[in-house]
Amino acid sequence: MTALLTIVILVFILIAIWQMVKIFDLAQAKNENSQIATDKDNTLNGYLMMGFLAFIYIITLVCVVKWGDLPLLSNSASEHGPTIDNLMAISLAIIFLVQIITQFLLHYFAFKYKGEKGRTALFFADNNKLEAIWTIIPVIVLAGLIIYGLNTWINIMGVDESDDPIVVELYAQQFNWKARYAGADNTLGKANVRLIDIDRANILGLDEADPNAQDDIITTELHLPVGKPVLFKMRSQDVLHSAYMPHFRAQMNCVPGMITQFGFTPTVTTEEMRQTPEMIEKVQHINDIRVEKSEALIAKGEDALERYEFDYLLLCNKICGKSHYNMQMKIVVETQEEYDAWIKEQKEFKNSLIN
Amino acid sequence: MSAHEDNHAHDDHGHHHKETFITKYIFSIDHKMIAKQYLITGTIMGIIGIMMSIMFRMQIAWPEEPNVLFEALLGKWAPDGVMDADIYLALVTIHGTIMVFFVLTAGLSGTFSNLLIPLQIGARDMASGFLNMVSYWLFFLSSVIMVLSLFVEAGPAAAGWTIYPPLSALPMAQGGSGAGMTLWLVSMAIFIASSLLGSLNYVVTVLNLRTKGMSMTRLPLTIWAFFITAVIGIISFPVLLSAALLLIMDRSFGTSFFLSDIFIQGEVLHYQGGSPVLFEHLFWFLGHPEVYIVLLPALGITSEIIATNSRKPIFGYRAMIASILAIAFLSTIVWGHHMFVSGMNPFLGSVFTFTTLLIAIPSAVKAFNYITTLWKGNLQMNPAMLFSIGLVSTFITGGLTGIILGDSALDINVHDTYFVVAHFHLVMGISALYGMFAGIYHWYPKMFGRMLNKNLGYLHFWVTAVCAYGVFFPMHFIGMAGLPRRYYTNSNFPLFDDLADVNVVITIFAIVGGAFQLVFLYNFFSSIFFGKKAEQNPWKSNTLEWTTPVEHVHGNWPGAIPEVHRWAYDYSKPGHDVDFVPQHIPLKEGEEELQH
């Protein structure tokens, strides 16, 4: 129905435009019909340029005010998160500044120097000084950004094995995630998709003969103890996937045939995150939207939407097929005690096999 | 017949006395006709590509709602009018493919390189008219195959326009990776052949067929842009061809270039030892330069149009050439910035961050030079000029966010989100499209001998400009909020529920913007027949194409080819009565040629 209405409205708009243009043309026929811009056109479009500049500023403002708090610029939940957020904030500040200035110059000049009969443009073809200025300024700014960025990047990607991180394998398949904990020895057992034996419930293809594999733990939820470095080893069994954990500022592709890795330290438990004022507000807002949607659904005789409660998520962020849009896993960050209790309940690999 | 008796490199088509309908309109070897063929084919592909984007935007805004449009256009892919998830991905994939390659590469470069290279350098035609014809018909063939692939039983290619294996290699991974993907690959292989023939022709023509006096430093910037674009194409397209061929081998002949250790649908496949990351390297070795293959011609067109309509020389002619060269060089060593989180060695990520951010420097030079060209000009607000100014605006807006995406540390969190979609649509999609529109409005009189209606042009520009920002500006914000691209619906993530209204706003702007392209189409096609007759040099421009007669003649100039005595940008030069001095006018006594 919406679509039909949209189409009808569009048709009307088009008819209106066509009529308007006809009127335009008829009004002009008396003077000239050269289809080359006249002074009148120059003036009109010059003012429209200023109008458009205002439009750019307004849309920027509206977006920042209305949706500016959506970006994951604050409340990152990992140790390296704030460094990325800082760099992002600095980059955005530079971008907004340059954007505001250059768009102003562009549109203001277009307005100020709109053509008039009899005026002569300035013959100004070259100025080495000016060009040097706008070569050197970007060079300096970019040099700063490059140094800062590379520093951050190297810190994030460098894995410090001396921290004794918890090793967790993230295993991707169309269209779900599994996590494999290394168990008491903190060493993942060898695995290959060729060893997958569905009948014996060896779903990740662990090497049953490998002693390291015996105590591995396979789960469908990812639990992490707060404040402890974790090193993810990513694997995929079929196509490319990408393990995207936006709250932790973490992402790495899962590539069939190779093991990729990404490490970080979660700093905020799920429970703490739920209690932050920003998150309470965001969740409230989302639930308001969901209540509204539910009313419409109930009116149609369908079930209402569940109330939303915040959870960290692992999303697939590399196109992987039909249900790509629904490939997710819940992440729970908790205290060491809660984590220990949870992991104790999970089955070790050697006990999960069906013989 | 003097045109053909002229002592020129390829007089051998002097024997085309009588042109039949077929040799004139279909298998033409005249570059002006071939340009029009490219333009019209590109326009038709553009209509298909834009329609697709409107359909999947509707699905994003109103997920899984029945829609008569879907029912009518998608048939079995929209049971009861609800779009299927597979066809959603297919639409996204084919939209990207069509817009990048068929519209903004062939449609833009193919049209304007063909039209302008011989006309602006003072040549009778391309170096090889025959290869030029073959190039067009290969493009046409590849377009037909791409369109046919939409009707394949299991669906068209749906692995994203980047067709990363294994998704694109395994029919069991996705319906679209069957016959649809085969046709996609065949179409692209033919497309690449077409593009290479065209590019070789452009390079040879620019190097060899310039008229007397047309030194490289007197070339209009359009030609510089087309020339360098062709060079980048020759360097990078063959690499994509090799990637496509290897992928065909993997798909059909059991090799393992890109595949290894795969377990799918309950069975282990035999592939061993390949790597999808290799494909990503090969793909982006073309894929990134492709961005500049799309963008540089648009920038070249803009340089010409801004100078002409500002009645001022382009500011910093040599700096403009230098920045084109710098961009071209850098474009071939930055591809890894698409792969920061691909599993590639993080050290490589550092290298690619460094090279990528360097591109901002020549880009900034270009932007500032355009702005300075406007300064103290006498701006003639023709529709082409508006689109050129619009291009500079979107080029800045879109280019700036590149310093976030090019920074590997920041890319971790916005990689493959809508932030990327917003960035590249503004900086290469909309900018190049504006360049194409600017070119069409500016050179329409040259192509068809008639004028486009300017009021329709103004309407087209302003609505398009507002809608383009309306679509892509808010998109940055949902990207920064972590919304991944290529999701059929976001309703499985309550986390993103508060982004739903943004998506509705974006879609409405997209629908209005898309609908207003009809204004352009109407203007374009009706003016071919009913437009006002054009004068010889309607925009009072300096370049050589405006010295040719309005009615096309084979060989371009009925008499001798004009000789060139100055650069293309002597606008408002002191000491002349009029505000333009075409390139073929000799220097006055005592007049200095500008040492630009």
Task: Put the structure in a nutshell.
Chain A is of the alpha+beta class and 355 residues long.
Task: Explain this structure.
The complex is a heterodimer of chains A (355) and B (596). With 355 residues, chain A is of the alpha+beta class. Chain A contains eight helices and ten strands. Chain A has helices at 2-29, 39-67, 81-112, 128-157, 270-275, 277-299, 336-345, 349-352, and strands at residues 166-173, 176-181, 217-219, 222-225, 230-236, 241-245, 250-254, 260-264, 312-316, 328-334. In chain A, the strands form two sheets. A five-stranded mixed beta sheet of chain A has the order 3-2-1-5-8, with no helix packed on it. In chain A, strands 4-10-9-6-7 form a five-stranded mixed beta sheet, covered by helices on one side. In chain A, a hairpin with a 2-residue loop joins strand 1 (166-173) and strand 2 (176-181). In chain A, helix 2 (39-67) packs antiparallel against helix 3 and helix 3 packs antiparallel against helix 4. Chain A starts with a helix and ends with a helix. The radius of gyration of chain B is 24 Å and the shape is globular. Chain B is mainly alpha-helical and 596 residues long. Chain B starts with a helix and ends in a 66-residue tail after the last helix. In chain B, helix 5 (85-121) crosses helix 9, helix 7 packs antiparallel against helix 8 (221-253) and helix 9 (276-310) packs across helix 13. In chain B, 66% of the residues are buried. Chain B has one domain (22-260, 268-547): Cytochrome C Oxidase, Chain A, CATH 1.20.210. In chain B, strands 1-2 form a two-stranded antiparallel ribbon. At the A-B interface, helix 1, helix 2, helix 3, helix 4 and strand 7 of A face helix 4, helix 5, strand 1, helix 9 and helix 10 of B. Chain A: Keywords: Copper, Electron transport, Membrane, Metal-binding, Respiratory chain, Translocase, Transmembrane, Transmembrane helix, Transport. Chain A: It is found in: Cell membrane; Membrane. Chain A: Residues 163-345 form the Cytochrome oxidase subunit II copper A binding domain. Chain A: InterPro entries: CcO_II, CcO_II-like_C, Cupredoxin, Cyt_c_oxidase_su2_TM_dom, Cyt_c_oxidase_su2_TM_sf. Chain A: This is Cytochrome c oxidase subunit 2.
